[in-house]
Amino acid sequence: MKKLICVLLSLVMLLSLAACGKDKAETTEPKKADTTAAEKVDTDEAEDAADETDAVETGEETDAPDTAESSEELPEFDQSGNIEETVMLDQDNIKVTATTLEYDNYSANLKLSLENNSDKTLTFSTNTLGFSGNSVNGFMIPDGYFNSEIAPGKKANETVTFSYDYLQLFGINEIADIVLGIRVTDEEYNETLYPDCQVKTSIADAYTYDEASYQKAMTSEAVQKSFGFTSTSFATDTLYDADNIRIVSSLLMTNEDGEQTVLLETVNNGTEMKNVVIAGVEINGLTIYDGNWSTTTISSGKRGVISVNLNDVFNEQYWAAYGLTTISSIDIKVGIQEGWDLNDENVVHLTIGDETPLNLDGTELFNQGNIRIISKGLLGHEDKYDSDLYLALLIDNGTDEAFDVSVQNDSLSVNDIMISEFGSDTNIPAHGYGILIIELQGSDLEESDITEVEQIQKVECVIDFGEGYDVAVEAPIVAEF
């Protein structure tokens, strides 16, 4: 039986892609598919379509939509869709042709012929950390990787593979169309993005694009059983709406290892692809991460999923220390990347259950000007490969201003021996709480023969509060054990 343990690990890595390349470079205007899962609906029509599929946008936690897929077992993947040879891209002295679509026991495999008719060596790729623009049936899919370097005037054959696991996880059980986002890079690392290279299959004309197919899949008993996860909280609501980007559903899921992941279903109703950025996370009102965490590309007229693995954002060894044994609310800061800027930043709020108080216990290290620093103690290695130790701090910002919080340079010592400072700098909102994890680097500790928490008697440093490089408050702390 297929399990989500492997699939979800890849899902988190691939859905949350760092956008290293340009949004668009030397591309023609993307040509939208004739019909996609999102292009033909505006806000009101989307709500009507959701009504028709029992996925009503209520803003409250909902039961799974009625669906025939709520049976115990997933159906076999429908392999009836095939293609005729189709030129997917032909410009700028390059050509990409889809030759056949083949199926095996695990995946659908699109065969490609690549031609470099230029006078430079070019690298063709899809689904990389630099650019991921692949979709199936109007839904962005974190699969279909290839990377091929082709000399001038030469050709190459490649295969783009789409796992049934990925497709069925997103509610896709047959293929009507495939769109590849192709990146071409020359020897000087100049890149050109071709975001909408489409091939339709033999079932495309009769295929009905169902805007609720993903929601049906993720709330289906069959999908949850097959992939080994449970739905902790599911809601359909417009959680974010800016610059033609809408977040229309949220799911908090727990896999068999106890890892918790938030999935945000996102629709791009605009005419250009957009990079949607996760820029901060709060749990139960506690800021656990501030800064750009991940970027997910949503092409024009497509739907996709933004994935946030909470256990990756905040290592599980810290949860109990801060009273996060039960999640009552999650706040995720979302924005749209435009070059180096983050625009339309807003907070997506998820109500999971009854309010759970934070654990504010600990040793107070600083209390001045409505700012408190509380030690939550020393914690050990985050995993078996980690040699570092960690001082966990709770920051209570009782002021009327948000503060950036960091460890001051050249201020950190352990047992009166200076070591390199390294902390997870963060921003604490006004009248809010946040975490600061100070990393005590194993390479420095080992020089003093320190390898375990029990060998540390004292940690000293200065915590800076301010905005950027402007420090408003210097807080010297001494944590003794």
Written overview of the protein:
This protein is mainly β. It has 7 helices and 28 strands. An 8-stranded mixed sheet has the order 18-17-14-15-26-21-20-19. The N terminus is likely disordered.
Quick structural overview:
With 481 residues, this protein is mainly β. Helix content is 10%, strand content 46%. It starts with a helix and ends with a strand.
Strand line-up in the sheet with most strands: 18-17-14-15-26-21-20-19
**Mind telling me the C-alpha Rg?**
25 Å
Low-pLDDT runs of 5+ residues are: 1-10, 12-70
Query: In DSSP terms, counting alpha (H) and pi (I) runs of 4 or more, how many helices?
Result: 7
Q: What is the share of helical residues?
A: 10-25%
Helix/strand/pairing category: mainly beta
Calculate the terminal CA-CA distance, rounded to whole Å: 49 Å
The total of beta strands comes to: 28
Mean pLDDT equals 86
Helices and strands in order, then pairings?
Elements: H1 4-15, H2 43-52, E1 86-91, E2 94-103, E3 107-116, E4 122-126, E5 135-136, E6 139-140, E7 146-150, E8 155-163, H3 164-169, E9 177-185, E10 191-200, H4 213-218, H5 221-227, E11 229-242, E12 245-255, E13 260-268, E14 274-283, E15 286-298, E16 303-309, H6 310-313, E17 329-338, E18 341-351, E19 363-368, E20 371-379, E21 389-397, E22 403-407, E23 413-414, E24 417-418, E25 426-428, E26 432-440, H7 442-446, E27 458-467, E28 470-480
Parallel strand pairs: 15-26
Antiparallel strand pairs: 1-2, 2-3, 3-8, 4-7, 4-9, 5-6, 5-9, 9-10, 11-12, 12-13, 13-16, 14-15, 14-17, 17-18, 19-20, 20-21, 21-26, 22-25, 22-27, 23-24, 23-27, 27-28
